[in-house]
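Review box. Two proteins, two foldings.
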Amino acid sequence: MSFQAYLDNAEKKTGRTPQELVDLAHARGYGPDTKANEILAWLKDEFDLGRGHGMALVHVIKNGPGISDAHVGSTGTHRDESAVLRLDGIAAR
């Protein structure tokens, strides 16, 4: 599953766009220095998100929407179309 697909599926499961989840996390004080397990526990408790979806969100909470070019390309199931993830929600596309 691509990075973007994890974020899209998290949106479908929670009813909140990735940006809304990032904003909630930042409002709780989560950011670059927060341990991943702390964020994962919150996402599990509040939204019942598992580790895969949670880790995609941990990345954008801690680092923003940019991902490595190594994840971008047209082959393989884990490839994304762009090095910048869409956080504005599925309906915005």
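Next protein.
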Amino acid sequence: MIKTIIVTHHSLADHLIETAETIVGQSENLVAVSIAKDGDIEAVRRHLQELIKGFHKAGKQVLILTDMFGGTPSNISLALYEPEKVEIVSGVNLPIVLKLAGGIKDESKSLKEIAADITEYGRKNIFTAAEFLDL
């Protein structure tokens, strides 16, 4: 089983989860961690470590989604990467959150495979108007 932590600047993580839950209903698979403009980075790091530790004790692997590669949320999260235990995907979008809100259905896939699938899914859900309208 996988738990997803969304780590973003300001309150984007909260809003992504709130929006997803408005569309698909309550999800126990998603957790938001927001980093305030003047937030205590070490406190956020410790909070993430405690979340991950708790999820591992419950037998869950952790998928961390961040808003953008190279930003503070991504940099903090990358330091917590553990092969087959914690995977990180940068560039979260609403389609990805919606896909994960219901949980991962294929338990036979590795965490790394799920992260790759989610990354591809997010990319496939980005369109230009001309592309969509076939102009």
